Amino acid sequence: MSMKMKVFCAALMSVVSMATMETGAYADEISFKAGGGSQMLKQPSYDAFARENKYAHVAVEVGYASRQRLSIIEPFLLVQTSGDPGTYAQTFNGGLEQDLYAQRVMLGADIGVMVGRFFRPSVRLGGGYLHRKLEVYVPSSSQHYVEHTHDFVGFGEAGGSVIIPLFFGTPANPDSFGARLRLGASAHMGYMAQTTSTFDELEPQLDDETWPVEQVDYGELPAGGGRLFNVGVFVRFRL
Amino acid sequence: MFALCVSGFAGMVSTGCQEPEYRQQWDESYDISAPFRAKDGAMVYIHRSFGQIIRVQPAKINGKVEILHDRIRIDGDLQQGLLNGDGTALFVMDGDKKLHRVDLSNPDEMSVDSVDLASAYDRMVLDPEEEFLLMSFNDSSQSSAKIIVRNLNEVAIVDLRAAEMDARFVTLSNRALDFEFAPSFELGGESRRLVAALSNSEVTIVDLLAEDDLNALREVPLTLSEAEAIKRPEQAVFDVTPDESLPDTINLYVKTTQGTDITQISVQPSVRQDSAYTFDISVNQLAAGASPGKIAVLELPGRGTRLLALNRATPEFTLVDVASGESASFTLPMTKAATEFLTYTASRQAGEDATEEIRILAYSQDSPVVSVIRPETISIGGDQPTLGRSVEAIRLERNPSSIDYDAEAAANRAVVFHGGYSGGFTILDLEANRDLPIDGYSLNDVLFDGLYAYGTLASSNLVAFELDTGHPTAFDLPYQAQSLTLDVSEGVLLLDAGEPEGSFIALDAEEPTPENAQVHQAIFLEGALNFFDK
After folding, report:
1. Which of A95, A212, B255, B385 is a good FRET partner for B449, with 20 to 30 A between their CA atoms?
2. Does the distance separating the beta carbons of A202 and B522 come in below 8 Å?
3. In sequence order, what are the beta bridge partners of A104?
């Protein structure tokens, strides 16, 4: 874990320094994005959770853009969450229910140029922290088992955004709130990969805590990843 | 991080073309066997969903109670299992026409050896002397496997005498419904192993050591003509104890569902010089009351060999003198017909001398009265024996659901299970013919350990009771347990909660408190995520 933490900190520092260097005093647009997407995970271990191997997520993202210097790079902070509480993936004809939740907190860079007035093709690269929660429920014994893992995740994707101003033409007051807003939608496809999640300390959730209880080695979800697809809508606000 | 992304893209390119198939095993029903009680308090399970044999053992390491578990993977379509007498080997049938023998003698590691079979059999019977194992097909196939074609009369004879298992296959002229092994005996100066294959209206005597086909299978019809109603053998008992009047003769007693007779099949060495057969077989019918139920062969000192048959319709039993064929029926002091019995030996104080006496405890799930029969005191030709002398009654608080007898201990005690959640249990003192009713929750399982017995209750409790006084002490458990075993040398109890994920509690037998315990849940699910990876 400590090795993973070091790599993560170094990556974080490089993104932060890049963002500050490039925007400087001229930073003038902040964007808020809400969206969703999916990651295909086809390693056999994931068959325990879903037949389709497609893991949907919802995401929120905050980005920052400089229009003066190095405007092609826009750094962003991205939070994604996947897993639907309350719906367990049933295996063994309902004999065993397993659910996998994931939260990802990532920093990244959206690299692209404006083509024409409204279209911005871009490549997005990012990485960060992955939290996973495995919950196992055995209906016949009414027993719950839970474990959390902490890993790294990274992605790369290509696609584009359509950005349109809220008011076309020249606004009467260029500094009014409405005139500062631009709206947009984006779609990207790529690949997301994560390090191995080891579930070797699965905890039974017993009511009685006087008994010494052993943890369960439930196996691991191996390192690797799958195809990524993201869409989102956003507003960009000129500062 | 960028390196991670680049590797991600590389991964996309390399894995993009592969479409691994969904592991269908996750969609099948979850299937794990009931525990097999192996040696040293270990419990062994056949995990059919994961194709594993899982062993869970109680242990004490540096004075601390532990639960050890190990597993061995057998790729195949695992079916039923059968444990040998001392719990050192588990035989597991495989739907892929195989028989596996799992060696449990090494507490650190299990090992498996297999033999190929001609068919996927669904029934196996182990020789009590563990030299042979026979396999056949059930009467009505309960296996969910799709059957394409099979020979129902085929029987596999697996020879276990050598280090490596060896199987040969014979076809009987009728489907074998069950097998009864004769204990090893000497006939005509030679050691013999016989087994009776029970079929509808027929018994086949299989000579396991015969080398020629003529002698290997000897068919004995139970009906005179094919037109007669089918007689289905229900129970067969061998008697190989040498009889003074008929040395060199062994007998097989067969009881069928139809008719009032018990068929006596006598096997003798062939005396005629020109006979191709090694054995001469003769059949005799013994009258055994109106409708005989379960039977037992009793060797009574001073009275010879006698058959005891419970009557299946009325509370009566019949004793048959095998030598003369004479029989007499006697009433049991019960209101319902006895369906089950257990045989034990009681020591009887007659003046200064203690003598051993064979007794039968007969009971029915429908009657609160259990009967103790003392067959040695019954004379068949004489008057009906008086109640209280030859047949005694013990009235229980409730109807028994089953009776568990402690065959190992010197003291003759049995524990009566009662049905329901709070039926309690009863300790039977079989020397004094008295009962100690224990009020409380019903027993799930019981285990005898000399002076004490341990039981799991239908509540979240363990009970330890002194067999002499019946005094019970209850201990708390984190949840309800079903089966229990004991590692006698370490004094550690192992309790299985009977849950599909495999939840176990190990306890110090002397002080079964949480401080001297270990709980390990979901043992059967260990490595579940990666189980179908390959």
Report:
1. A212
2. yes
3. A80, A130
